[in-house]
Prior knowledge:
The complex is a heterodimer.
Chain A: E1 17-20, H1 30-39, E2 44-50, H2 52-59, E3 63-71, H3 80-87, E4 92-95, H4 98-109, E5 114-117, H5 124-127, E6 133-136, E7 144-149, E8 153-163, E9 169-171, H6 179-185, E10 186-196, E11 211-213, E12 220-223, H7 241-249, H8 254-264, H9 269-284
Parallel strand pairs in A: 1-2, 1-8, 2-3, 3-4, 8-10, 10-12
Antiparallel strand pairs in A: 5-7, 6-7, 8-9, 9-11
Helix pairs in contact in A: 1-2, 2-3, 4-6
Chain B: H1 7-17, E1 26-29, H2 32-43, E2 51-52, E3 57-59, E4 72-75, H3 78-87, E5 90-94, E6 98-100, E7 105-106, E8 109-111, E9 116-119, H4 126-132, E10 134-139, E11 147-148, H5 159-164, E12 172-178, E13 181-184, E14 193-197, H6 203-208, H7 228-238, H8 244-247
Parallel strand pairs in B: 1-5, 5-10, 6-11, 10-12
Antiparallel strand pairs in B: 2-3, 3-4, 6-7, 8-9, 12-13, 13-14
Helix pairs in contact in B: 1-2, 2-7
Amino acid sequence: MPGIIDDPAELIRDGMTIGIGGWGSRRKPMSLVRAIVRSGARDLTVVSFGGPDVGILCATGQAAEIVHGFVSLDSIAIDPHFAAARQEGRVRSVELDEAMLVAGLRAASRRLPFEVTRSGLGSDAVDRNPGIRTITSPYEDGETLVAMPAIPLDLALLHLDRADQAGTAVCLGPDLFFDDLFAGAAARTVVSVERVVATGELFEGATHTASALNPTLTDWVVEAPGGAGFTAHPPHHPRDEALQRRYAASAADAAAWREFAERFVAVDDDRYRDAVSRFHAEEAS
Amino acid sequence: MTSPATRAEVAATACGDLFRGSGRILAGPIGVIPSIGARLAKLTHSPQLLLSDGEATIFADVPPVGEPFERVQAPFPYRDLFELIARGGRHVVMGAAQIDRHGNQNLSAIGDRDRPIRQLLGARAAATNTLSHATSYWIARHSPRVFVEHVDVVTGVGPARARAAGADRLQDLRRIVTDLGVLGFDGPGGTVSLISRHPGVSVDDIVRATGFALHIAGDVPETRTPDESELILIRERIDPHRLRDREVPTS
């Protein structure tokens, strides 16, 4: 049985390595990211195919290190909060080729010290990262390859569509991304979902692209409707471009960020939904 | 008679020619001009080419650029894309903030890597691409800011670095198409060379717009212009909204 927890913020501790699912500004567990913010935990290592999750944790000063292949808002190419933090030297950026990040998560998920890959050889992701070694194939080819070290996580945070009480979590959208690898690489996984349902309803009306995490991969399930925030979450909603623009604009100065954070970040889910409704009413008027 | 091809149309046709003879691989065009090229290739010389929306689906139809695909051919999430890249089943046409004389690409940052002046997209899978399957580049504004002596951060790997790392076995760098001409990687030691210049562009124009010494072997031919049927396909079927003119303005 997955655990029951009143507030996922209780799980977050200083110095944790936290993996965050989704991709860019798509299906990010923004409700759980707000839980990190409420927790006040600091000195975090964040592992992510980065989007606003990374930007927010840079802006709050909670992230010390970002392990990533990119940080993008998709329709806005560069997350300005992450860009500012990297340019001002406020975070350590561990930039990996995307396939290296996948290999590191897979190694951790399989409890191996590393996974062998060709990806990244000759690039600065390998040449300028002293923590990454190469290995020579022991077979006749003798090829040089990357021994991508495992990226074990203390906690994985994911947002999917449906889960049952036993912890099966379903992705109704077209792409699970690498959420299962984040779950496998993590000591504990929290999955927020649009709706907790009876087991028999998990795949109701699902298309051929539906995929799922089995209950061995999930430790806590939290019901959080709209939990992907302004990021894209098919089939439920497209990206909220207006709110994303407001988020990006909040990187302009400290006051703009404080205003955005008080309204949309350092709040629980109910207050967040109210704030978004009011925001769109203002935008329309 | 149709009016003569614009620079954007020549560049798009050159991007399409990158896929000639590829067979059933996935085209990975990034940007409007490469997307027009991939669609032109599929509608003419390379009907087996596979097109995707860049997200989680391969599609069977060829809609105009800027309009949605409709006929699903196969689900194709990111994990399948990464496996396909590893198998060599794609030809990507990537962008670059910088490319140097040795064919290294930078998508990551300008300035010092640990304290950059300007953060860019990030490493993405550029290294994976350049070591695994056919890779070309599309540069919409050929300038000394893009074509630099040394890139600030190496994301895509050029021939010399791949060789030095022992990772050149599957490398397949093809071409760099720009708004001025077509470049290759067949200078000494795999350095960047000039293959052709677009109509109305001189070799001097290209040399002036390149921040390093380009390898130029003998006479430089003109890039081929699209024929009448290709022009009609581009103008009426693939890009009726003229998105191409925004990427490469008519001079």
